Amino acid sequence: MSPSVPPAPLTHRRVLKIALPIVLSNATVPILGAVDVGVVGQMGEAAPIGAVAMGAIILTTVYWIFGFLRMGTVGLVGQAAGAGDDDEVSAWLTRALMVAAIGGLGLILLQVPLFWAAFQLSPASAEVESLARTYLHIRIWTAPAAIAVYALTGWLVAMERTGAVFWIQLGMNGVNIALSFLFVLGFGWGVAGVALSTVIAELLGAGLGLWFCRAAFVRPAWRDWSRVLERAKLIRMALLNTDILLRSAMLMIIFSSFVFIGARFGDVTLAANEVLIQFMYITAYAMDGFAFAAETLIARAYGRGDPGRVRRSALLTSLWGLVVCVVTAAAFLFAGPWLIDLMAKDVDVQIEARAYLWWMVVAPLLGCAAWMLDGIFIGAARGRDMRNMMAVSFAIYWIAILVMLPVMGNHGLWAALLISFVARGLTLGARYPALERGAGQEN
Known about the structure:
- There is one protein chain.
- By secondary structure, the protein is mostly helical.
- It has 17 helices and no strands.
- The protein has two domains: 9-229, no CATH class; 244-443, no CATH class.
- 84% of the residues lie in helices and 0% in strands.
């Protein structure tokens, strides 16, 4: 049943208010990685740089597994907010934080076999591995806090408080950067100093997140354990998160295989692909804001049981997503060669990257539907559709690899990647009418 309180109007201003803080927040992410590498680079040795890079990749990959917590929380909290059920808005945050706590403690307990497996998959020199282990064994202790940030961010996005998300990200990265300079260059703590600065930043991020989410803890429902541990709600959360996890795992395999397959064409082509894939990340960072806006607006419309608002939310956010994709495509067309030269100084890599640049010009246009529909389906909490349509796209990607790679080489690899984007957009688009009809019904 729809709540009696009239909903806020769906306007371009409302979309931008949600989206722009996320875009600004994402802009701070690459800066942190560059500073960490730059700081340890001042030590004058190669091993610390490799150790920080390897340790960060391992933990980023492990924590990424829990990315479902942000996406799932947005849909569930947003729908409760749309339905006017403030008690469930609070209870969903508690459930998400419970998952973060259990997952984080599990990683701490399993850190020895986990890191052993990681180094078996990515062997390094004895010196790099030793330093990386130091980094990992310091950072792992804040796993519950790091994962909790996903849950807190999801709750804030669902409540249309993306400005708070920006301040959390800015606070975490700002403190991390300042402490990295202090601990490494000031105190001479090396790799351990970089790890410790991140630990403190993650604790700060979780603390800020809890502060910004304090409205959830005003209502007694957040600690009403009979409500929080309600079996039906926990099952719904588990099924949704599992579907999102499987969908995300397939997407990660696609991108990982792209890198590994590209390595077959030699170091120059591999480096060119790596330069160009950064263009796609730039597009994704810009698109995130409008995909997040779709998540929260669709979730609220879905919670109200209003198919008309679902459609308007989808159209309004997708319009802005299309604008971003057209702008980035144009930017890559005209500024692409300059960006390539900025990121790669090797002349052979520059020439090779230019040969494939046109794939990056069309990538935002071909991927726009997939990126926006992801946000729409997350808001509707239709994890099963996301999982199934990703499975279809995953199969199409591998068929394209088998057919195109022998004939087109690295061009075939790029074609297969973009075909998977188109397939995801088309298959999710085919399921959209069912999503709209399902507004107000249980998933």
